[in-house]
Design brief:
With 401 residues, this protein is α/β, with parallel strands linked by helices. 46% of the residues lie in helices and 13% in strands. It has three domains: 222 residues, HUPs (Rossmann fold), CATH 3.40.50.620; 80 residues, Tyrosyl-Transfer RNA Synthetase; 69 residues, RNA-binding S4 domain (Structural Genomics Hypothetical 15.5 Kd Protein In mrcA-pckA Intergenic Region, Chain A, Roll). It has a six-stranded mixed beta sheet, with helices on both faces. Strands 7-13-12-9-10 form a five-stranded mixed beta sheet, with no helix packed on it. Strands 8-11 form a two-stranded antiparallel sheet. Strand 5, helix 11 and strand 6 form a beta-alpha-beta unit. Helix 13 packs parallel to helix 15. The chain binds one RNA strand of 76 nucleotides through helix 12, helix 15, helix 16 and helix 18.
RNA sequence: GCUGGGGUAGCUUAGUGGAUAGAGCAUCAGGCUGUAAACCUGAAGGUUGUGGGUUCGAGUCCCACCCCUGGCGCCA
């Protein structure tokens, strides 16, 4: 029993921001040994599951390991309507085929963290299964459980109201839809990022009204992306869970120092005591943050790939970026001529979109051939021997005749 | 029905009828570094919502249309 208490403690502390209605009640339920049904809903608009999602998935995984029933809900219906919480007005409606395809890759990606096999496999559901079936009458019935005042409490709406910006009526329906998900699946708990708090709480309202039942809500912290803003596809600052070890390692190395500890806490399994120790070292400047980041990158690659690949990625990183050597592997193209103008080569190989861009990069000193900076744009390359092209810091290409 | 604001780069926007439409953020490259961040240098990015008109000359003025949007009225 002691062990269960410890696990529950851990479950409800790390990677947790808030618990509704309160932590104590959820703790009691969990300690009683009762199995809960819980879910996390993802928006299928972007095909990548990134480390931000992984934080939530890890929380689900913990519940899964304790024997609770976990559901990954694909918001395919919601995805087809468009997301109101951003001001991204237009969002291409997804076709049914696209949704299925996304769902497939979602599950594959989520499988990096969650288990979909074995004794207590996580389930995948689609909310179109029930949302498509609702009649207008049903919808009105659902909305009658909310007041406009409740909806307006939402920060986002308050802000827009005071700025005189529009609020679409349909935007009030999103929380209602999400809430209905909870009711249909009859869950005991919903987990999501703090940005979803309002929507998840709407589920509590509906659950109480329609099923006279308590639904817990647990929020996890949002993970900042490479540049410190919220990790989001539209900012281009994401690290995908299925990215190649090399890319993953490199991207982690490029996060700002202030995020190191947060990343350790949220996306690795390094113990909290160890993290505290690292944080102290960092604060006392006993360690070069770069070294710590290498450890972080290693842990993350290990987490999503394997220890072996993490070692390799670390080695490769040191080789290419710290010792400025040539990577062991790189893409390769073959050309038919023995002598090719450099600008043509850059365009053919898709390293640049136009000759102008290629010229610019060369003039700025961003192009190397066999580790020598190219200085003149109108150079012709002799391909009797294969050459190695480098554009910027990261792009390499081997060219053969 | 009445009325106000707006549409210029991926985003936010500046721009008296007068030169090649300018800036910040984001992007890309270089420098400094630790592939950090910040900073410095440089670059790319535009059919100025659409179509007409006036003019030597229109982002700017006129007309029509399209799109976004605030408010009022109509329901006591």
């Amino acid at each position: 029993m002691k062990r269960l208490e410890e696990k529950v403690n851990h479950l409800l502390s790390r990677r947790v921001v808030e618990i509704f209605p309160d932590r104590k009640q959820l703790r009691q339920q969990l300690e009683s040994g009762q199995k809960l049904r819980l879910y996390f809903g993802v928006d299928p608009s972007s095909p990548t599951i990134h480390l931000g999602h992984a934080v939530v998935l890890k929380k689900l995984r913990q519940f899964q390991e304790l024997g609770h029933e976990v559901i990954l809900l694909i918001g395919d219906f919601t995805g087809r309507i468009g997301d109101p919480s951003g001001r991204t007005a237009e969002r291409k409606p997804l076709t049914h085929a696209q949704v299925l395809e996304n769902a497939q890759t979602y599950q594959e990606q989520a499988a990096k963290v969650l288990s979909f096999q074995g004794t207590n496999p996580a389930k995948v559901k689609f909310n179109s299964a029930w949302l498509d079936e609702l009649t207008f009458k049903d919808v009105i019935g659902l909305t009658s459980h909310f007041t406009v005042q409740q909806m307006l409490e939402r920060d986002m709406f308050q802000t827009r109201l005071s700025e005189g910006k529009p609020i679409g009526l349909h935007e009030f329906l999103y929380p209602v839809m999400q809430g209905y998900d909870s009711v249909v699946m009859d869950v005991d708990l919903e987990i999501g990022g703090t940005d979803q708090t309002f929507n998840m709480l709407a589920g509590r309202t509906l659950m109480a009204a329609l099923k006279q039942k308590e639904k817990f809500v647990l929020t996890v912290p949002l993970l900042e992306g490479l540049d410190g803003r919220k990790m989001s596809k539209s900012f281009g600052n994401v690290i995908g869970v299925t990215e190649k070890p090399q890319d993953m390692f490199g991207k982690v190395m490029s996060i700002r120092d202030e995020l190191i500890i947060k990343y350790f806490t949220l996306v690795t399994e390094v113990s909290e005591e160890e993290i505290k120790r690292l944080e102290a070292q960092l604060n006392l400047k006993e360690v070069n943050p770069m070294e710590l980041k290498k450890k972080l990158a290693f842990e993350i690659v290990k987490e999503f790939h394997s220890e072996k690949e993490a070692h390799e990625a670390a080695k490769e990183f040191e080789k290419v970026f710290q010792k400025a050597e040539i990577p062991t592997e790189m893409p390769e193209i073959k050309v038919t001529e023995n002598k090719v103008p450099l600008l043509d080569l850059l365009v053919i190989s898709n390293l640049v979109v136009s000759r102008t861009e290629g010229r610019r990069l060369i003039e700025q000193g961003g192009v190397e051939i066999n580790q020598h900076k190219v200085t003149t744009p109108n150079e012709t390359i002799d391909l009797n021997e294969p050459v190695i092209l480098r554009i910027g810091k990261r792009k390499f290409l081997r060219v053969k005749a």
